[in-house]
Prior knowledge:
About 40% of the residues lie in helices and about 15% in strands. It is of the alpha+beta class.
Amino acid sequence: MASQRKVYIISGGVTKFAKAHPEMDFRLMVKRAYDYAMKDVPKLKPSDIESSRISYFSDHFARQLKAASMVQDYLGLNPKDSRRIEWGGATGGQAIQAGWETVASGRNEVCLVAGFETMSSVETWKGNEFIALASDTNFDYPVGGFYTGYYALMVQRHIYEYLRMGKFAGVKDERKAQRLATEEAKRVMAMVSVKNHVNALYNPYSQYPEKLTVREALGREMISYPLNRPDVCTMSDGAAVTILASEEVAFKYTDRPVLISGVGCGTDTMRLADRPHGKVPLFPWETAEYYSKLKYPGVHSFRAGRTAALEAYKNAGITDPKGELDFVELHDAYASSEVQTYEDIGLCRYGEGYDFVAQGHPFLSDVDYGLDLPNRGTLPVNPSGGLIACGHPVGATGIMQGVFALWQLQGSIGKHFGNERLQVKDAKRGLIHSHAGTGSSVTVTILERV
């Protein structure tokens, strides 16, 4: 990173995420987000944009091959350079990093990063089938693999590894121990669901704002044990746009650009059964002895997420993320994966994710959740509501995180949301995290106020 040019996000825009936007096709959705972003930087002209990186997950949802070219045309950006980015659930996060690369390399001064998805074009069962094609279609998919099943399996192992063999290791009766461990995990996951749905009440772009209690979350329909409906993201329509610029021109267009100070990327096997057991890649504050008995990563933890975080922290000079980050927007396709990701990106050690929630660390200080949270607000996670409450139009999701992080660091949540309830006070540094497949591809990007 030291040899690269500095890259800034100078503006962003988001459409409301919704079950469907029948009045708009994907081109118009992107145009609405693009127009919003351009209004925030009135000195920037369309002719100043030298390239685009346009992300969407599935040609099936768009019902259009080369849909990115359709967007490029609709925005009036021809005949300039453009690329389509696709990387499963991490498509939006990868698009931001692709935009960063084109500016950091010196190829362009200004790059538009845009993403969308129109998942309402098919029924939910067909959408789940399309999404399942992002798993190993040689093995996992043909034997009935769907994502709720994958994540239920992975969190079951996470519960066993960290609660059954940890907090409840002294319980002799195996069935009782596993039951107690699962009940605690479900309660904590319900707390995550409450947090994100309540946060979404104050986000006008969100799809599923709801005043929810832990009891209500636990009583909702079971989707794939132990995941209930409020624990699971749903299909969405939506678009998001960020505009990236070099240091040479960023301050020409705005006096509040946000620096991209660290980028990281990690990968893992597509087939779950191929995940190896080996040594835990350590953050500077961890020791090998602490994890000496842990079979890592197996299917309980996301090695790609840890790899991405290690690279991003190194680039950004972060040695204590819990102390040096002011907020995190992470890929919570499931409440369970939010807890797992706390550990992967070093907000706490492996095995401490459930207590991290129970203590209140990822909740906002000024929002009433109806919960007893002794350490609330230490490090807010998903103040936007995350995927399970804000929505998950896949190609737009990671870019949405970038837009909301930009507004947090500019201190302009009140301006864009119409209220300041979700504004993290004096935020200086944030993290955005995109996650694909069963943890097969992950990006982590660090953003800083300047």
